[in-house]
Specification:
Layout: H1 3-15, H2 21-35, H3 40-54, E1 66-67, E2 72-73, H4 80-94, H5 99-109, H6 112-125, H7 132-140, H8 144-151, H9 154-159, H10 162-175, H11 185-188, H12 191-206, H13 213-225
Helix pairs in contact: 1-4, 2-3, 2-4, 3-4, 4-5, 4-6, 5-6, 6-8, 7-8, 10-12, 12-13
């Protein structure tokens, strides 16, 4: 069994006991349509409807990560809608369609919840850098949940170039978001990122504004590498 199929089956196993019979039937129907190559507009309709169909629960905080192409994928705390939508994209990838291309297309036309689900799903589908266009858009966003989904993302850590990765981390620090959850931070971080973080700290100290406590520790680790 392929890694993609194994990951898909694991995600379905997490969803099944948490969905009502009606919600499970709706997800199965959407996945069948995706697997047989239903036209994109139909898949988009199913993708959007899953939010309403599966309800407002979430995966438990104790949920173990799923296997991805290059990194484990944290799914703890994902909303059921996000997990169901990721499952639909995995069904596309296992059928005649291409998962990454479908994720980007759905991202482009989706509302915030749909876009977050697309970003969360990218590392589960990972094969190449096709999804970077969605990651780049998410990194530019000032909608915190969307920005968070783009930057605490193994796909972003795998495919962003050094400059884009550094600016994503710096923006997280500027917004006061945790840095520890950034995948491969110590591996991908450079002395230039350390310099950027030190500059942010100095700027905040001069203006007597709070600065992220993690930033100094991350900068020190990256400086020690160089």
């Amino acid at each position: 069994m392929s890694l993609l199929a194994t990951t898909d089956d694991c995600l379905l196993a997490l969803l099944r006991p948490r969905l009502t019979a009606a919600a499970w039937a709706a997800l199965e129907g959407a996945r069948r349509a995706a697997r047989v190559g239903e036209e994109p507009r139909g898949v988009a309709h199913c993708f959007a409807a899953l939010d309403r169909q599966v309800g407002h629960g979430s995966l438990p905080a104790t949920t173990p990560p799923l296997a991805g192409g290059t990194d484990s994928i944290p799914v703890a705390g994902w909303s059921l809608a996000t997990a169901a939508r990721a499952s639909l994209l995995l069904a596309v990838a296992r059928g005649p369609g291409r998962g990454l291309e479908a994720a980007v297309a759905l991202y482009d036309r989706g509302e915030i919840g749909e876009r977050i689900a697309c970003l969360r799903a990218l590392p589960l589908l990972e094969a190449n850098d096709t999804g970077l266009v969605a990651i780049a858009d998410g990194c530019r966003s000032n909608v915190l949940p969307l920005f968070d989904a783009a930057t605490v993302n193994p796909y972003a850590s795998r495919w962003l170039d050094d400059d884009a990765f550094a600016h994503a981390v710096l923006k997280r620090a500027t917004l006061g978001l945790p840095l520890a959850s950034v995948v491969r931070l110590d591996e991908r971080g450079t002395p230039e990122l350390a310099r950027m973080l030190r500059s942010l700290i100095r700027e905040r100290e001069i203006s007597a504004r709070p600065w992220p406590a993690e930033a100094a520790a991350v900068a020190a680790r990256l400086e020690a590498k160089g």
